Hints:
The chain is mainly α and 83 residues long. It has one domain (5-82). The protein contains 3 helices and no strands. α2 (20-40) packs antiparallel against α3.
Amino acid sequence: MFTNKLFIVSILDGLHTPFAYVRSQFISFITDCIPLIANFLDPLECTECIRHILYTYYKIIKDIGGTLAKAVIDNFEKESEEL
Length: 83
């Protein structure tokens, strides 16, 4: 199962869901699977798999963080204009 590239791709695609609860379930599943992945894959494949997982986390955090930062800036500018 862990050696199937479609499995990993599907899990990583699931992280991009717009629903926070579902995304958190994917994150929990990945967290539980990492020790199993390390047991079944050779070190190079494991490293590549973990790299993909971390990069996907990075992209999600960047997207969410950027959206929140823009909302705060927009709100600040709106309040400044009202003064």
